């Protein structure tokens, strides 16, 4: 952010850059982790972050502490900060929490009187069905993200939304990695069709049961990718 300080007439205008706040630094780093710019195990060097953001050292340290509290960063004495590398058991715990929360979201969306959002969900489902056999794994991954987000929006539960946002950041890139397999796309979209139909038709119990099974299957698919996990 640049603030321009105007001097009295006849003097040059001076541009002064305001350092980023700790919250802004944390957001940049969080987005970088989510999008894979920073990979698990990578060191987060304070001097590099300061050069990139213009933030002060104290604000960078505060930002790293926030991310450590969120479980995204590990801070070790004498070694500094690095992107946390999740163990398979930690990923299992994340998925078990997702099963409960996304199952609840699917049930609440099913009972909600939100025909416009349900129509949007069906439209995304139709687009996924049309692209299922195209081999465009990136597009399917994006549609999958939009589908899950819309279900969370449709539930209208701010606490579920907040908790799931925290849970999803550490595994965001891993979620995409499971879709580089045609069989996984077929299986995932078969689940999507069941869940979409249950939500649109107002069958809350089925929506919750199908979603829980879908998230659990996602973990089983992900757990085969051993290279992503620490010991």
TrEMBL record:
<dbReference type="Pfam" id="PF07729">
    <property type="entry name" value="FCD"/>
</dbReference>
<dbReference type="InterPro" id="IPR011711">
    <property type="entry name" value="GntR_C"/>
</dbReference>
<dbReference type="InterPro" id="IPR008920">
    <property type="entry name" value="TF_FadR/GntR_C"/>
</dbReference>
<protein>
    <submittedName>
        <fullName>Bacterial regulatory protein, gntR family protein</fullName>
    </submittedName>
</protein>
<keyword id="KW-0805">Transcription regulation</keyword>
<dbReference type="InterPro" id="IPR036390">
    <property type="entry name" value="WH_DNA-bd_sf"/>
</dbReference>
<feature type="domain" description="HTH gntR-type">
    <location>
        <begin position="19"/>
        <end position="86"/>
    </location>
</feature>
<dbReference type="GO" id="GO:0003677">
    <property type="term" value="F:DNA binding"/>
</dbReference>
<dbReference type="InterPro" id="IPR000524">
    <property type="entry name" value="Tscrpt_reg_HTH_GntR"/>
</dbReference>
<dbReference type="Pfam" id="PF00392">
    <property type="entry name" value="GntR"/>
</dbReference>
<keyword id="KW-0804">Transcription</keyword>
<keyword id="KW-0238">DNA-binding</keyword>
<dbReference type="GO" id="GO:0003700">
    <property type="term" value="F:DNA-binding transcription factor activity"/>
</dbReference>
<dbReference type="InterPro" id="IPR036388">
    <property type="entry name" value="WH-like_DNA-bd_sf"/>
</dbReference>
């Amino acid at each position: 952010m640049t603030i321009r300080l105007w001097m009295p007439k006849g003097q040059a205008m001076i541009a002064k850059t305001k350092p980023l706040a700790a919250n802004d630094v944390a957001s940049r780093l969080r987005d970088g982790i989510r999008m894979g710019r920073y990979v698990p195990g990578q060191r987060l060097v304070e001097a590099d972050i300061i050069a990139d953001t213009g933030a002060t050292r104290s604000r960078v340290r505060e930002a790293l502490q926030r991310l450590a509290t969120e479980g995204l960063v590990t801070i070790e004495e004498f070694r500094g900060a690095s992107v946390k590398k999740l163990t398979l058991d930690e990923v299992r715990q994340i998925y078990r929490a997702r099963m409960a929360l996304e199952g609840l979201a699917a049930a609440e969306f099913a009972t909600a009187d939100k025909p416009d959002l349900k129509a949007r969900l069906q439209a995304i489902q139709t687009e996924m069905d049309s692209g299922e056999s195209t081999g465009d794994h990136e597009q399917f991954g994006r549609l999958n993200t939009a589908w899950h987000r819309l279900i969370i929006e449709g539930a209208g539960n701010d606490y579920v939304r907040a908790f799931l946002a925290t849970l999803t950041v550490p595994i965001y890139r891993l979620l995409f990695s499971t879709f580089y397999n045609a069989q996984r796309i077929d299986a995932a979209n078969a689940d999507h069709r069941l869940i979409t139909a249950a939500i649109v038709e107002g069958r809350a119990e089925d929506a919750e049961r199908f979603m829980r099974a879908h998230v659990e299957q996602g973990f089983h698919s992900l757990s085969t990718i051993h290279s992503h996990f620490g010991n």
